[in-house]
Amino acid sequence: MNLTKADLNLLVYLDVLLRERNVTRAAEQLNITQPALSNGLRRLRSLLDDPLLVRTSNGMEPTERALEIQPLLRSVLGQAEQIVQTADQFDPASSQRVFRIMASDYAESTLLPTMMSTIREQAPNIVLDVLTPSDVKFDDIELGRVDMAINRFDDMPQSLHQKLVWTDEYACLMSKNNPIARQWSLDSYLAARHVWVSKTGMGVGMGMSPDRTQRLGWVDEALARTGKRRSIAVFTRHYMVASLLAAQRDLIATLPRKAAELQSSDAGLLLLAPPFDIPLFELKLAWGPIMQHNQAHKWLRSLIISTAESLC
């Protein structure tokens, strides 16, 4: 194929089509008409000699050829973004950029206060728009609609870049007046009532049930491996709320230690190691290929990692 005869805008069309798998939504995202995108799809099919997207009972589905080229396509478009970026260096002191960051409640409460202090000194006009995991899909990060995500991930698309922020362990937070504080053991832990906190995964969450151990996350999965279950009184999606509930005399919150330590200075609260083994977990920073070489983005990524290092 002679590239001089190809419209490289078609690659952008194809990237969005493969993400959305719907011509109408893809056209809206590209800010073009549906007939224009349909014509683009016809040209792509001719150019690549493949249907690329076919109609099924479940809607539009990519062909094997389309799935093969999708990772390469994303990489090429990311490099193209780097080529067309302005050569001007990012100046945090004068920038008025808005960064959109998806962060779990845990990441937000532990990282953001220290990070904002540095931002106010180095980049006083920069604005952070912090979104919750339920607000964001991986596509939003891949396409650059959201700058980055800070969370614990069971898995993520291979197209995303990632970096370890830190590794954390669990701790139990409770009132000093909780009677089991004086007889701390696995048996007393299991006899108590507990506050559960969501794993805060991507996408809209669903309601929880104490009977569905496999969906309850790291703490309950660790207990299940010993053949035990705890009694959950409250399901919450917010670590700070769990910390506040732990101040009640009969509740225990088993939290990441860094989140628990934010409240443990309260004279009425006690922080203890769990009476059973819970695996360590990793907090990660993830971003899309389009933002990989963006100078402002690099600056913020570096700031997040340096802030995390100062807190470890």
List keywords for this structure.
single chain, Arc Repressor Mutant, subunit A, 11 helices, 312 residues, D-Maltodextrin-Binding Protein, domain 2, 3 domains
What does this structure look like?
With 312 residues, this protein is of the alpha/beta class. It has 3 domains: 3-84, Winged helix-like DNA-binding domain superfamily/Winged helix DNA-binding domain (Arc Repressor Mutant, subunit A, Orthogonal Bundle), CATH 1.10.10; 98-166 and 282-311, D-Maltodextrin-Binding Protein, domain 2 (3-Layer(aba) Sandwich); 170-279, Periplasmic binding protein-like II (D-Maltodextrin-Binding Protein, domain 2, 3-Layer(aba) Sandwich), CATH 3.40.190. Helices cover 40% and strands 21% of the residues. It is built from 11 helices and 12 strands. It has helices spanning 9-20, 23-30, 34-48, 64-84, 105-122, 138-142, 186-191, 218-224, 239-245, 257-264, 295-311, and strands spanning 53-56, 59-62, 98-103, 127-131, 148-151, 161-168, 170-175, 193-197, 231-236, 251-256, 269-272, 281-287. Strands 4-3-5-12-6 form a 5-stranded mixed sheet. Strands 9-8-10-7-11 form a 5-stranded mixed sheet. Strand 1 and strand 2 form a beta hairpin. It starts with 8 loop residues before the first helix and ends with a helix. The model has no long low-confidence stretch (mean pLDDT 86).
Task: Describe the structure concisely.
The chain is α/β, with parallel strands linked by helices and 312 residues long. It has 3 domains: 3-84, Arc Repressor Mutant, subunit A (Orthogonal Bundle); 98-166 and 282-311, Periplasmic binding protein-like II (D-Maltodextrin-Binding Protein, domain 2), CATH 3.40.190.10; 170-279, 3-Layer(aba) Sandwich (D-Maltodextrin-Binding Protein, domain 2), CATH 3.40.190.
